[in-house]
């Protein structure tokens, strides 16, 4: 469906009146269970989003930009939101944030609610979504910017880095420095798709060099310095002859560095460490940990700029991809 689905479309698909379809979708009035299921299934199949401001504003839109991220407690997404806000504050537009907690069903619900208010644009972290969420974004009639990742099939506008390339280039840099007994500490999959892609790229670099990953430790939940310390200790207790550990985030690698400092493990002579994201946190550590800058602030700025560039009444998706290409920063630990 090339245009935004209407209530009439839903009523025809479900073979009910528009009034009945409206009651079901608004949760008002009575309808049989069969009718309700038929209407909801029809709405989901075409990515229908209710217009909560229809009839109340002549413009049929508000000066809001919906932003959906997995977390607002992470350093990573805080910098993205700062970059986006810095651009929007020069306009009449205001960002409104929603959190998916790395759950695609939750993300679908947040996207539906965001779009129901007819914002001027939508920014969503990542390229993995439910089918219903993709349909809603495709039919939204506003600029939709998927950010952080370019390894996939974008709905419309896309700004980010290749996480597979990031993992691959880090793996190559590690191998070029002579490390052979490698460990990995990262998030359990498939919750964090971008971390999973980095690990895939890392493994590809190792496979091309006929090097096997010696050991790994996976975790759920957020990355913290304490967790980085604890998992580094656990990994080294199990495989004490590791000469390199690659972490899925800088927060974890900094925790790993603290474990090494506290236990007189010489870095990088006895053990090399590398993370990802280029967090400022690294500059407060006893040594500057190796990383790869993910251009978070720049991605947030560019996403906002794209929305401003493409804002128009009859907007159609343009399928534009903007990729930032970061390099490995060896610091003092690689």
TrEMBL record:
Residues 5-59 form the HTH lacI-type domain. One of its GO terms (molecular function) is DNA-binding transcription factor activity. Keywords: DNA-binding, Transcription, Transcription regulation. InterPro entries: HTH_LacI, Lambda_DNA-bd_dom_sf, Peripla_BP/Lac1_sug-bd_dom, Peripla_BP_I. The keyword Transcription applies. CDD domains: HTH_LacI, PBP1_GntR. This is LacI family transcriptional regulator. It comes from Neptunicoccus cionae.
